[in-house]
Amino acid sequence: MRIGVFDSGFGGLTVLRALLDRIPGAEFFYLGDTARLPYGAKSRKTVARYAVSSAKFLTSEGADHLVIACNTASALALDAIRDAVPVPVLGVVETGANAARASSRTRDVLVVATAATVESRAYAAACAERELRALEKACPLLVPLVEEGWIEHPVTAEVLRIYLSELMEEAAAANIDADTLVLGCTHYPLLRAQFERATPRSLRVIDSAQVTAEQVAEMLGTGNGAQNSGSRVRFYATDSVAKFSALGGRFLGRAIPAVELVDLGG
Amino acid sequence: MRIGVFDSGFGGLTVLRALLDRIPGAEFFYLGDTARLPYGAKSRKTVARYAVSSAKFLTSEGADHLVIACNTASALALDAIRDAVPVPVLGVVETGANAARASSRTRDVLVVATAATVESRAYAAACAERELRALEKACPLLVPLVEEGWIEHPVTAEVLRIYLSELMEEAAAANIDADTLVLGCTHYPLLRAQFERATPRSLRVIDSAQVTAEQVAEMLGTGNGAQNSGSRVRFYATDSVAKFSALGGRFLGRAIPAVELVDLGG
Fold first, then answer.
1. Residue B60 CB partners (closer than 8 Å, separation 6+)
2. Which residues of chain A does CATH 3.40.50.1860 include?
3. Residues of chain B contacting A42 with CB distance shorter than 8 Å
4. A155 vs B162: CB contact, 8 Å cut-off?
5. CA distance A5 to B223
6. Tens digits of residue pLDDT in B141-155
7. Of A43, A140, A155, which is closest to B239 when you measure between CB atoms?
8. CA-closest candidate to residue A68, choices A55, A80, A59
9. pLDDT at site B29
10. What is the pLDDT of residue A266?
11. DSSP secondary-structure letter at A190?
12. Which residues of A are catalytic?
């Protein structure tokens, strides 16, 4: 089994990390389109162009399944990617919405994500298909805070408090009785503890990286929690491979040995 | 006179705004490479590739002078741009260093900028050529805070306080007796009042947008402060023109009427 994992940058490594834990023996290809990141504030057309060229690269390297581990690309470009490559494609928006469906009793959920993901209304649509109401909130400062390394930091706690209190006010005003909060950006799992601290206990926090790995493992019929000694990973980046190795380790939770530089044009 | 102004995004509009005030009657071409922004965390090679294609576009449209209003591109790609186009090219790092030289009595200056600008050591080198010592500090959260619109905001004040106190500690440890602080990123002029509030009175704050406009006007031998009713501006962007109009107005200080979409590949 050859699984391609794609993200605009490093956040998708949180998904890869969860996949490595769950799908032992598979071969993985990870591409971070670091020369063109971030996708979060760009238009649908531009994101689709970038994501399709990235997906084609991964299948040309031999991937027979693709996981779009970038919420923005999943939200804005999933159909374009499915049209462009001949292999099964799973995106984190769908898996996040599936997990929200399984979690929510009230059928009302909250979603935090990048500006582009929220503007696309992709979570709202995916939730509506599953008979859930979703209230979304863009949190554009969280990615830079994670990338600055300010994880356990009072400024990050304050920014989270501001975003979440605005979201709660909007929920109250719209009469949304949410019991589930979806972390709709693959940078946010690094702030999971901070989210859990900043939200009421009645709100269950769903980590899109983890639930994506669970659903990919289920789809591929592989076991859960087995040893992953047999997994092999090849890493590709479109910008500096040195920077990819250095920063990526924080997301993968272990050192990244070798990264290949890829030129996708642009 | 046909002046091309280039930035990765919106920040260069602060330079254009200052140029419009100082060079009446000129024709301006502004390109924001918004599909590939931000440059601030990317490698020299990638930034040079993007900046050269952008500079070539502006000269192909008829610009006979180029102002590189992006600190990262000026720091990493000025020589590559000069090699690639047949017109005079001025970059904000040089003009910032010139202004620092004119301002500083102690010959010690501080520079705040993006991570890529700081890593390039371009300000340090430009200052050294002018017999100044420069201590640089990367402030990666300031651009996202400006883009979130959190200008007069307690979180921004706190982030600035943290960055500046780290910088002051480093200056004390290195025995740097600075009297000048260069805002080495074209987003930072929007935070000029906050910088002035957060720094001691003994430190003069230099706004790179303003000093660049002054030096371009001087170089072109045009008057100062005359009416600009005769100026014409054409705006180009590589990503959503609607977003460019909406966000750009904040930096230009007035509405942006029409923007042309440009495809530079990538």
1. none
2. 2-91+212-261, 93-208
3. 34-35, 239-240
4. yes
5. 57
6. 999 999 899 999 999
7. A43
8. A55
9. 98
10. 63
11. G
12. 70, 185
